[in-house]
Specification:
The chain is mostly beta strands and 357 residues long. Helix content is 3%, strand content 54%. It has two domains: 7-16 and 256-353, Macroglobulin (MG2) domain (Immunoglobulin-like), CATH 2.60.40.1930; 25-239.
C-alpha cells in the first residue's frame, strides 16, 4: 500500500462525475479467435436508467451453466441469400453472421442447427454504432425471412432501438466496477407464419466497463404474444468478468481514477464521490466485502481545517452510502480531501468545493 501522496497524483483532476465509458471498435469490437465463458445467474431486474446509478448485484446467485461463446472470421456454414459478412459469433446454440467495420456492427442472419432453423435479413439489423457513449441512441428497421425445418416459412419485420441509457457503479459479488455504461437494446417486431402471428419484444441490457472488451453483465427479457392470446416471457441474466481488454492497462480494470489513491489487494474498497466539484452537498458510497472498522475524515492540506465524520465505526459487509451536507455547506470554496480508513487500507480522495450561489 502506498501511504505517501505524490504531488502529481494530487494535482491530477479527473472527477468521477465526468468519467465516461465510450464504446469504440478498437476497445469493444469483436475479435476473431476470441472465446469467453459466460456465467449464468438467476434473473435480476435491470434497475434504473440515468446518471450516477448504483446497481447492487452483490447477492446474485450463480447457476451451474457456463456456456462458451466463440468468434470466428470464417466457417463452413452456408446460408442462401446471406449478405456479406466477416465474422461469425457462436453463442447459445446460434451462429450469428455479422458484418463489422470501424463504425458499426450489422447482423446479416443466423443458423441454429439444433432447432433446424435459419434466418436471413433482407434489411440487416444495425446492432451497434461506433463511437457510442451515454445519451447516444439510434433506431433501425429490419426485414427478414426465416425457415423452420426447411419449408416452414416465417416473415419477420420490425425495428431495433439501441440507447446508452445509464452510467454508474456496478456491484458484483467479487468486485465493484465504477463508470460502467449500460446499453439498452429494444427489438420489437412481428413474425407471420402459416398458423398465425407472434408479436415480439426483446429488451436487452448490457453493462460495459473500461478494461473489458465485451459486456460484463447482460440481462435479457423476451416477451412473445401469440395471435391465439397466449403470452410467453423468457428472462435470462449472466456475467462475464473473466475477459480482459489488452488495449487498456490493468490499473483501469474494476475502477477509474476519481482523485483517489487506493491500496492494492483482494479486499480493496473503491470509493465513489458525486457530484465533484460540489456546491453544498457531496455523496459518497463504498462496498465492503467483509465486516470492517471504518473512519472518515475531511481536511485540507494546509492544516487549517479537519473534521472527523466517522471514527472507527464497525460496519457490515455490503453497500454503504453517506453524504456530507451540514459540514460541507459551511465550508469556503477550495480544495479538500476525504480520508477513508477501512481497517488497514487508506483511501484519500480529492474534492473541490465551489462558491455557493
Amino acid at each position: 500500500m502506498r501511504n505517501l501522496l505524490s504531488t502529481t497524483a494530487l494535482l491530477f483532476t479527473s472527477f468521477g462525475l465526468f468519467a465516461q465509458t465510450t464504446l469504440t471498435r478498437s476497445t469493444n469490437g469483436l475479435i476473431s479467435g476470441d472465446s469467453y465463458t459466460i456465467r449464468e445467474i438467476e434473473f435480476v431486474t435491470p434497475g434504473s436508467d440515468g446518471l450516477n446509478q448504483i446497481w447492487d448485484y452483490s447477492k446474485i446467485n450463480y447457476s451451474d451453466k457456463n456456456p462458451v461463446s466463440e468468434i470466428k472470421s470464417n466457417d463452413n456454414l452456408q446460408l442462401s441469400g446471406l449478405g456479406d459478412h466477416n465474422l461469425t459469433l457462436n453463442e447459445g446454440g446460434y451462429n450469428f453472421f455479422l458484418n463489422t467495420t470501424d463504425s458499426k456492427i450489422e447482423e446479416m442472419g443466423y443458423i441454429n442447427k439444433e432447432k433446424n432453423m435459419n434466418l436471413v435479413y433482407s434489411n440487416p439489423v444495425l446492432k451497434m454504432k461506433y463511437p457510442f457513449a451515454y445519451g447516444d441512441q439510434f433506431t433501425d428497421p429490419f426485414t427478414a425471412v426465416a425457415y423452420f425445418n426447411e419449408n416452414y416459412r416465417i416473415d419477420f419485420s420490425g425495428e431495433n432501438k439501441v440507447t446508452a441509457d445509464a452510467t454508474g457503479t456496478l456491484i458484483l459479488p467479487d468486485m465493484v466496477i465504477k463508470d460502467a455504461l449500460r446499453v439498452k437494446t429494444q427489438k420489437t417486431g412481428i413474425q407471420v407464419n402459416p398458423c398465425g402471428s407472434v408479436k415480439i419484444n426483446i429488451s436487452k441490457y448490457a453493462w460495459y466497463a473500461t478494461g473489458y472488451r465485451y459486456p460484463v453483465m447482460i440481462i435479457t427479457i423476451v416477451e412473445n404474444k401469440f395471435s391465439n392470446g397466449k403470452t410467453e416471457i423468457i428472462q435470462t441474466a449472466s456475467t462475464n468478468t473473466s475477459q480482459y481488454n489488452s488495449n487498456v492497462s490493468n490499473s483501469s480494470v474494476g475502477s477509474s481514477f476519481n482523485g483517489s489513491l487506493n491500496a492494492s489487494g483482494k479486499n480493496d474498497v473503491s470509493v465513489s464521490l458525486f457530484p465533484n466539484p460540489f456546491s453544498d452537498k457531496i455523496t459518497y458510497n463504498y462496498f465492503l466485502r467483509s465486516k470492517l472498522p471504518v473512519s472518515i475524515t475531511l481536511f485540507d492540506l494546509a492544516g487549517k481545517y479537519s473534521e472527523q465524520i466517522v471514527q472507527n465505526d464497525m460496519q457490515s459487509e455490503g453497500l454503504h452510502i453517506g453524504s456530507l451536507e451540514n459540514v460541507t455547506s459551511k465550508l469556503p470554496a477550495g480544495v479538500y480531501y476525504l480520508r477513508f480508513i477501512f481497517d488497514q487500507q487508506v483511501v484519500v480522495s480529492k474534492v473541490v468545493k465551489l462558491q455557493n450561489n
